[in-house]
Structure formats: C-alpha cells, structure tokens
User: Fold this.
Amino acid sequence: MRAANGRGDLDFDVVVVGAGFAGLYALHRLRGLGFSTTVIESADDVGGTWYWNRYPGARCDIESIDYSYSFDPELQAEWQWSERYATQPEILRYLGHVADKHELRRHIRFSTRVVAATWDDDASFWRVRTDRADELRCRFYVMASGCLSLPKTPDIEGVGRFRGAIYHTNRWPHEGVDFSGKRVAVIGTGSSGIQSIPLIARQAAALTVFQRTPNFSRPAYNGPVPATKKAAFDADPAAYRHAARWSRAGVPAEPSLVRVFQVSEEERLAKYEAAYASGDLLALSSTFADIGADPRANQTVCDFMRAKIRSIVRDPATAETLSPKDHFYGTKRPCLDTDYFETFNLPHVGLVDLRKDPIRTITETGIETASRSFAFDAIVFATGFDAMTGPIVAVDIEGRNGSPLAPKWAEGPRTYLGLMTHGFPNFFTITGPGSPSVLSNMVVSIEQHIDWLAACLVHMRAERLDAVEPTATAEAGWVQHVNDCADVTLFPSANSWYMGANVPGKPRVFLPYVGGVDRYRKTCDEVVSRGYLGFAFDGPGGARCNDGVVNRLQLDVSIVLELIAGLGLPPMETMAVADARALLAGMAIGRPPGPEVSDVADGVLDGTAGLLAYRCYRPASPGPHPIVVYFHGGGWVLGGLDSDDPFCRDLCVRSESIVVSVDYRHAPEARFPAAVDDGFAAVRWIAANADALGGDASRLAVCGWSAGGNIAAVVCQMARDAGGPRIAGQVLVNPVTDCDLGRESYVANSDGYILTTALMRWFWDQYADPADRTDPKASPLRARDLSGLPPALVVTAEFDPLRDDGAAYAAAMAAAGVDVCHLACRGQIHTSVTAVDMILSAGGAREEIGAALRRFLAAPAPAYGGEVVAAMRAS
Ligand SMILES: Cc1cc2nc3c(=O)[nH]c(=O)nc-3n(C[C@H](O)[C@H](O)[C@H](O)COP(=O)(O)OP(=O)(O)OC[C@H]3O[C@@H](n4cnc5c(N)ncnc54)[C@H](O)[C@@H]3O)c2cc1C
Assistant:
C-alpha cells in the first residue's frame, strides 16, 4: 500500500494505538481527511476503558451528556443516555454504536498489542511492531493508548498462592461474577473500589475492605438525566459544546472569583451543602477560587467532608478510619458514589486500616495482616493504574538515533504540550502527560488533541512536509510551565497517582497540566497561529523551525492580566494625577488583605519639610525587633500607606521585623528630591526613635518597591555618605535605578504588563526635570562610587520594563564589591511580588525577601559573593 503523502513505501500514513474514545475518533477523523489509518488494539473489541473495566458499579462520574463525543451532531441527536451517569455497559454500547455508525471496526486490528516502535531517521517513518510479529511502516505514530489502561500489578507477597478466585476491577470477567454466599476481600479504595464495594456487599456473605488511603467521596445522586441539563443541551448543542471546550475542566461552568474567607462561615457552609447535594463531581472544588491553592481554604472543605462521613458512618472508629487526613480535597481524584459510606454500617462489612495493620502476606486461604488472619473465597484488587506514562513507556519506543523514550522520561515525562516529545518526530500522545488530560472531562480533551493533530497533518500535507518535532527549547519551556502551574496548587502535596506516587520507583512529578482546558486550548491555538511556535518541520517542502517558548508568563500572572484587560481601563498616563490616584485606590478594594500581624499603628515622624505619616507593623514574637523601613511604589506620584499594606504585612511576618512604612511626599506637588530627602530623614528619625517603636536601631534595613526601591537605594547612598545611620541591608524590589528608558527591557516589555514604558515616562515627567534626572539621587546607578553600600538583595521580574534597571544596579554594586544577590523572577511582572495572596507564584520571591531581611538583620552580615539567583519560587 502506498500512503497518501506519497513518499516511500509506507503501509499507512498513520498507525494509532488503542480503540477507546481517542482511537476511535482519531481513526474517523484522519480517514475522513484522506490519511490512510489503522488502529491496533490489544482487546478484542472497541471501548478501551469501558471494554476493560466491567466491575460492578462501574460508571462515569462526569455526566454522560458531557462525557460524550461532540464531533457528530447526528450522533448527539440520536443517542439518549438513560441515566445521568451512565453505566459501563451503556458507555460500551455507545462506543460500539459509534464504531458501527462510522464503519470503524474494519480498520482496527483487535487482539494485537504494539510492543515496539522505531523511528527510521533516513526514511522518515516509524516501524511499528506488534506481538503478532508483524511490522507496519507509517509516517505518523499516534498513541491513543489511554491514561488509565495499564493496571498496576499488586505488589503484595503471596498473590500467586491464593487458592480462591482473584479479580482485578480493570480486567473483570465478561460474564460477570456472582459473590452470593462468598467471603470477599476488596483491596483498594480509589474510584473503582468506591464504586464496586456497595454492590459487592449486596451479594457477599461477608466483605472485608482493605484500605491504605481513605478518599473523599460524595453521593452521585444518580438518576435520570437532569431535566435542566438536558434542556440546556437540547436548546443549543453547539453552544453547549463550545462552552465546554472553553471551560476549565471541559464541562460548562462559571469559575468562582470569590475566596473562601471573603464570605461568612454560614454562607460558606451553605455553598458546600449545595455543591454536595448537586451530585456534580466538580462542584465542590469550584465553590471558591482558592480551594485548589490555599491550604487554609481547602481545609474548610476537608472539615466539611469529614463531618459528612461522620454523619453517615455509625461507628465512630470506622468513620475516623474512612476520613482522609493526609491530603487536601481534590489533590487526589475525588470520587462520586452510591451508598459507599453507608455500606460500612452493614453488619457483614468490615474495614482494615492498612496504615495500622499492613498486609503481611496473601495465603492459600486468605490474607494475613500484621495482627490478624482472614479467610476468603475471593479477593478483588481495586489497586489502580500506572497512570499516564505507564502505557506509553510499556512500548519499546526509539526515536532519532535509536534513542529510547523510557530513559528520556526516567526523571518524569518531558513533552511539548503533552502532544509530542523532542527527539521523536511524528510521534503523538493523545491526552499525554503535560496536557489537561485526567484533570478534565477526557472526551473534550481527546477531541481537542485529535483535532489539533489532524490540522497539523493537513498543514504538513499542504506544505509537503513529512516530519515534525518539537524543539528542545520549546519542550524545556513547556515542562517548566507545567511544573510552575502545579507548584502554585496543592496538588504536589499529595501522594496521588497524578504524582506517580502509587507506583514504586516512579518519579514524583505532577503529570497533567493544571492550567485548565480553556487556557490549554488557547495555548495550542496560539502555537499554530504563531507559525507552529516551538516545532521544527522537514520534508520535500523544505526545512523550517520557529523556535521559541509559549506561555512564558506564570499562570496566575496571565489570569490577573486578563482580568485587568477585561476592565478596559484607560492608560494611567492619560489621566489627571488625582484620577490616577483614585483609580489605584479603587483597585485595592476587595484584594486579599495580607497576613495577620500582631499590631498595626499609624503615627507621624519628622520629614525634611514637616511631618510625614507612617504605619508601623509589629510581629507577634517578643521584641525588641529589628526594623525594616519601607518605601511604597507608585512612580513617586501614586500610592501611600494603604497601597502596599498587604506587602508590608507579608514583610513583617516573613522577616520577623517591625516594618515602618513611610508616606514620603509625592510628585508633582513635591518634585525631586523631596521623596529621597524625606526617605533619608525618615530613616534617621526611625533610627533615633527605635526604642520608642519597640525596635533595635542597631539592626535596621531598608526595603522599597519600584520608585520606593529607588528611594531605598538612594537612602543607602546618602547614609553611607553622611556616615550614618548604619543600614544593615537593602532590599530593592523592581527598583527604578536610572532615567535611561532605552534599555532592552523597556523595549521588550513596553506594554501589556501593567507598568508600561509610557507610564514610566509620565512618572519621570511628574517627578524630575530632565536636567535633574541624571543626578545620582534620582538615578542611583549613576553614582560615581557604589562601594561601601549595605549588602543588597535586588529583585527583578522578567516581564517588567524596569528589569534591566535592577539588573544593572545589582551588577554595578557587585562590581564595586558590595555583597549583592540578584533574584531574577521568571515569568513575573512589575506588580507580582507585592500582590500578596494574589500572585501565588511570586510567593517564593517573597520568601527570599523575608529570608534576606532576616539574614541582614542578624549578626554576622551575610556574604552573597555576588551570586545571581535565577529563581522563581520555592514551594
Ligand atoms: C473506571 C473508570 C472510570 C472513568 N470515568 C471517567 C469519567 O467519568 N470521565 C472522564 O473524563 N474520564 C473517566 N475515566 C478516564 C477514561 O480512561 C477516559 O475518559 C477515556 O475513556 C480514555 O479514552 P482513551 O481512548 O484515551 O483510552 P482508553 O479508553 O484507556 O483506551 C486505550 C486503549 O489502548 C489499548 N492499548 C494500550 N496500549 C496498547 C498497546 N501497546 N497495544 C495495543 N493496544 C493498547 C488499551 O487496551 C485500551 O483499550 C475513567 C477511567 C476509568 C478506569
């Protein structure tokens, strides 16, 4: 057979592994586009997950209306689900119907396992080998092999010895199992265990459940398809599907912007009750915006769920054992059930806590734990899967130069977009690691991946290209992005299969992409619209590569930027000063307040031209404390004691110091050098009045953000030149250090990241005459001598016009022998560090700042040795 692309003697354009939701749609779509395609499937029929998992109670937990294909309007109209959450047999019938309707079966090789796939560098094709000892040559090799298709083999001693029946939930006998009159053990309480246990209990004479990790589960309240849902779908299926595709999890829903502690406890519990009663898997996690990221917020859900378990399970000790305490809600896949917890009230059902009483061995007649011996007729293993990467690396895949995939992924999977991996041309993974995949309604994610793949293949055909591969740069950037996104959530804290933690020896890496279906789709579209950013192509049509990294901003930064862009505000530099000040004050309303501190008191101190207001934040620990004098940002024009209040609280807590925030005079009313003169006067006053403030004058540091960073830097120079007060350290956060707006970062980041180059120009115009701007008191970088300055931490943000200002000052101080650490924050913007509890990905930088201040303010002084830290965040 000659393939449609026409180069070489190929058997097929595309070989697809797997005939589940993904493989079936891939086959239909690619054949429809004229690509010769075959599917190889180890089972003897279609269905994938729904072919293998036939245990009692197996059903989907995303509502069937959502958990179904959208590509065929006719199919959507003709297929009616009998239940809200369809059973395994019904879903299997559905997939069989799809295969028949589109005449797919004849293109599928059943009962055949792919064992190896090797890329032929010279001929640009894949050789795919099966367990039937045949070899297929194809241009494109697509693994639609499933994320949960490789069962995890139970690593329990003595499994082979048991003389009774052994069942695995994911390899259940087709004819079913009758447990009547039997003594049954179920090992495992993940989704499959939770679904099957109530039904096995109904038949068995005695059931013992062996639990290692309790899981959060809620009633599914299954029944007929809810009328409201059906009406919403029927009214406009296309609009409904569109909403699903552009949602966070692949199911139409409005994300909450409200945080847990913004509402009263009463309101919070009412929302949790409503989510609980909804029987919707995703409802509880999405009641509030911060449940997935803030431990305290999540704890309120955990408490609510544990109270529910206690209200159902009558025996307090059993309820306690069934209550999850080792992970946050949602960090392991939550479950939906029918009578799961109620089952433990039945007299013939027992529970063994393997944490306290681990299995020693399986014997010929049953199970021996550390303290007991059980006799069983049957053992059911509900022990889960080697998820996401397992089925892929189970095949012996070799890419360019014969390099195998398994070692490349030994420390965790490395992909670009979860779709491809560098060094393996024309190899695609459907719902692969690094894509939303198992965190989403999988059918939506499957269709998106296959549509993207199909468009890519069409593009290549049109351009006469026959090899595509992500670049190493693009892949490294994506892996970083996937990890950055996971790191601002609570997911990595759990020993979950999302983290590979259920398989001994598997690297502990968060496997799916947590950024959401909508954002991910947008990213994939953007990659294409930017000329297949990060992909290299080759073929008769020529070689081309558009190297680069997509999504370089931190996820939470992008979200904030989108929210602000959605407000449609006029540029600040076009406003009157009073209006700009009012706007800034207005934007602070409703933001997270920052952490609690022991005491906050306002006062006045002597400035150069009269009294200045200050605000003093005290930590809870006993004093006297070191003192940090803080100068707020706002381009010498905007801001005040309120504008940086959350950041001052954060500084106070993290540095365990008294923070005195100084309200220096602002431009244009008081132009240069009023602000820096006030800053220096304030430091002198605070040093002189340290005792009254409860502080220790011998341990005094300065810190400032933006224009405040400029003031802090200048104050250090003034104090050095005046012979005091002694400043133990300076923290300059995104400081203005020079009046030259021509630096690269002013050009690259001139617009779109809140602080713009135009706004910076406006600030300078308000603050200082052009002739004054080169004065070192305005541009501290221009000081003739930078030696003898206090040790410094300079923080810069990648997407900040001021980035190179800070970097240049750090480098110049280091060259002058000052102890300097430069913390370059990847993916951050000018306002990130001060956006406490909003830009969580800047939490690591805030921690570094706190640590630096603690070091500065403790004897002996730190020694950075001019180190440059390309750090983002420490989790
Ligand atoms: C019990 C259970 C319930 C689930 N419920 C939901 C739900 O409610 N919502 C949701 O979104 N997701 C759910 N999932 C996830 C589910 O896996 C996906 O929704 C979806 O079915 C995956 O489809 P797929 O085609 O990608 O993979 P699969 O359905 O897993 O199909 C992959 C196929 O590839 C075959 N295969 C693998 N390797 C090879 C090889 N080397 N050679 C030949 N054949 C191979 C396998 O035999 C399998 O048939 C559930 C999973 C399970 C186990």
The two ends are 54 Å apart (CA to CA).
